[in-house]
Amino acid sequence: MTLPNFAENLQKYADLTVNTGIGVKNGDTVYIQIAVDQAPLARLLTAAAYKAGAAEVLVQWNDDTISRLDMQNKDDDRLFNIPNFITDQFDYWLDHNAKRITVISADPDNLKGIDADRVATYQDAYGKAYGKLLNAISSNKISWTIIAAASAKWAEKVFPDAANPEAATDQLWDQIFKTTRIYTDDPAVAWQKHDQTLRERAAWLNQEQFDHLHYTAPGTDLTVGLPKNHIWEGAGSFNPRGEEFMANMPTEEVFTAPDFRRIDGTVASTKPLAYAGNILEGMHFTFKDGQVVEAHADKGDAVLQNLLNIPGARSLGEVSLVPDPSPISQSGITFFNTLFDENASDHMALGQAYPFSVENGIDMTEEELITAGMNRSQTHVDFMMGSAEMNIDGIKADGTVTLIFRNGDWA
């Protein structure tokens, strides 16, 4: 690693993740999901969590090579039946209100060439086992954050013209530090200011309470209904104990849930999507009465069709507004990673809606959430559909039209 002051900045990154990302307090249980080649960061995160008062820090390791070998070779009855010790682990985390740090660094092409049906069947089985924990996460019942770490395979995908893997990894770490405000004098203060800016945008949208949104851009002409008493959020969220956390670092979005029954028209993706170890490009969707009735991807279509076969994945669970002038967009870099690419572009998510996106949603039953228009699913997959040509109108129940975005930016 030749990036200047790397060790110092990695320490700042770990401290920011623990203290601003999930807000560790005395007595907390923390679990960290991270790749084995990111062990130096895992150690810093663990030390920072204990310094902040954590009672216990649990590390769940993963490895791209082993994940691919498992997907290629594991017997079907072992791959598609999630063992009890995995679900017991999830239950333990839930029982202790564990705060989650997920560190993503995987090769976007790690499962390229593997039978898409096999991958989809595993994801369906894992999704069912993960369902209770996913519901807690999507309801903000526990604090969680997703951050990134540069790996050589991912970095080479993002920076194919770099002199060597080390140079590419340096470039990717540099972007990670820039977009998470690590290079500022006090990253925590910088995040507080950024949080306030996004909250002001969300507050205006909450006051307006539009009945639906109308998106228009090349390849897109889509109307998206919004639930009554929907809630827009930006940057920070709060768990039931009133503790703030940053679910995504970086983040440039304000977001809410659509009414999954009132989505009509067409929408085209504008950036590649890294999903299930594959890259999907050139996606087009047609919606009628809230459901995808036609979909195609120029690249990765079989993976897309398997995604859409997951219950609830044919409707939307999130709509997010991201101005094209945002720093990640203006970098001109495609990261092949949703954490970054979704913060360079307006995006939508197929699948699960976050219950906190509607008033009193976290206290609703599944049936009440459905009645309120909140999509339910085992998955939540964001795809990017914004651009510098995107126009968005907010339309109230009486037909009043308000400009929200023009040419990819706030009107």
Model description:
It is a single chain. This protein is α+β, with helices and mostly antiparallel strands. It has 13 helices and 20 strands. The strands form 4 sheets. Strands 5, 6, 11, 12, 13, 14, 18, 19 and 20 form a 9-stranded antiparallel β-sheet that branches. A 5-stranded antiparallel β-sheet has the order 7-10-15-16-17. Strands 2-1-3-4 form a 4-stranded parallel β-sheet. Strand 3, helix 6 and strand 4 form a beta-alpha-beta unit. The longest helix has 23 residues. It is globular, with a radius of gyration of 20 Å. It starts with 5 loop residues before the first helix and ends with a strand.
Provide a compact summary of the structure.
The chain is built from 13 helices and 20 strands. It has 411 residues and is an alpha+beta fold. Strands 5, 6, 11, 12, 13, 14, 18, 19 and 20 form a nine-stranded antiparallel β-sheet that branches. The protein has a five-stranded antiparallel β-sheet with strand order 7-10-15-16-17. Strands 2-1-3-4 form a four-stranded parallel β-sheet.
Can you tell me the residue ranges where pLDDT is under 50 for at least 5 consecutive residues? none
Which sheet architecture does the biggest sheet show? 9 strands, antiparallel
Name the structural class.
alpha+beta
Q: Write down how many β-strands occur, each being a DSSP E stretch of 2 or more residues.
A: 20
Straight-line N-to-C gap: 43 Å
Please bin the fraction of helical residues.
Answer: 25-40%
Instruction: Give the overall shape, derived from the CA principal axes.
Output: globular
Number of helices: 13
What gyration radius follows from the Cα positions, in whole Å? 20 Å
Q: Roughly what is the average pLDDT, rounded to an integer? A: 94
Approximate strand percentage: 25-35%
